[in-house]
Structures are given as C-alpha cells and as structure tokens.
Amino acid sequence: MDGIGDRFQKETKYRRDKLPGGRLDLSTRPKPYKEYEGAKKIVLDKPKPRLIAPLDLCIRTRRSVRRFSGKAVSFQDISYITWAAAGVQRIEENYPFRTAPSAGALYPIETYLVVHNVEDAPPGLYHYFPLDHSLELMEEGDFRPHATRAALDQKMCMSAAVTFLFTAVWERSKWKYKQRAYRYIYLDAGHMGQNLALSAAGLGLGTCAIGAIYDEEADALLQLDPEEEGIIMMVAAGHPVR
C-alpha cells in the first residue's frame, strides 16, 4: 500500500495534459517577508566579503559538525552567514531578491535564531528581518533546551553558539503553485541551508542541518499557527571542537 509520501509524489506531479490553469490574483499575493513590529532590533553589520577560504575549499571541507566549542561567534560572522542564507542580494524594480533561489521569487521561508553565544547579541529567540538586515528580539533568555527537545533531543543544539530555525509560510507559495508548492518550499529551504553551510565553512565555522524535528514543539517554541506557518529545518552552528 502506498504511504502518504508516495501519494504526495503522485498527486503533485505535473502532467502535460493536466497543468493547472487560471490567472493569479495579484491583490491576494502574500507579503514575501514577516516583521515583528515593535520588537527590539539589533541591526547587523553590512555584509562584507568575509570568507577566509575560496569556494572550492568550502565545498571540499564542509562537514556536518555535531560538537561545538564554547567559543563565541563574532557579530561580523553571524551577520555574514545569516545574510548568505536569507539576506537581500539586490533590488530590481523595487523588488528585493535574495541570496538563495526561490520558486517564483516568492520566498516562503522565514528565518529564526536561538542565540546562545554570539558577540554583542544577548541570548534569546530572534527573527531575521531581511529588508534591513536585522535581528528582531522575540524574547530574551536561554532557549537551548527548547531547541534541543524540538530537535529530537539532539545535544548539539545545547553546545551550538546559535541554532537557526527555518519555517515556511505556506500561502506564499500556495498562492501560485497550489499543492505543488510544498515541493518548492523544501527546495527553497535546501538552497538556504547550503548557503549557510558553505558560508560558515568559509569562516572556519561548523554547521549541521537537522531534519529530525518534533514539529509541534518547534512550532510552539516560535509561537506559530501551524496552519499558516510551520517548521521545515533547523541548523546548529558554531565553532567546531578541534
């Protein structure tokens, strides 16, 4: 018997004789970003060339790192890797395009950070706002235990300097692509995760992507309505144990 994954693959296939039709209603297009109005903001440094290694070396040396030292990640480095994953790369005709590709340039992925050991950033739960390259403080405190439990109790989230949480605002993609949108959402998150991993490797940092997640616990940590927005992936990051 087919499982739900098999059915998803079959039911979201494009077929030449059954392509979805209709016109898009631009008046109902969701915003491609989320903002926590009134939140305290930490404006990150303008992203400058930071890599200490060429791209070829980043690709060859990237590893999944699960053991992190207690060394703090610099403010400049957290600024760069966050921008590399989710930041604005250029603006064309008043539309901000980002560093990672996105189906239809709809950018369904939101970026949150559980900060533990980052210079000039108090420990807490943050949301990244790409338009002005800032971290919006959702709540100050030590959220590592929450992130660890949500990541199937994987202890790397306790020792990581920061854990990134990537979520999807479903309607941003479904507005155009309907049920096929979920395929594109997962691809978008993968592009962003790879940008994060390679940029971190170029700075001598380590990362580990996490797909094993208790969805409801991660959504609760971020105070999300899972009908509108839900967790896709987590990434632990920091200085690796040498």
Automatic annotation (TrEMBL):
InterPro entries: Bacteriocin_Proc_Enz, Nitroreductase, Nitroreductase-like, SagB-type_dehydrogenase. One of its GO terms (molecular function) is oxidoreductase activity. Residues 59-239 form the Nitroreductase domain. SUPFAM superfamilies: FMN-dependent nitroreductase-like (SSF55469). Residues 1-30 are annotated as: Disordered. It holds the Pfam family Nitroreductase. Signal peptide: none annotated. This is Nitroreductase. The lineage of its organism: Bacteria, Pseudomonadati, Thermodesulfobacteriota, Desulfobacteria, Desulfobacterales.
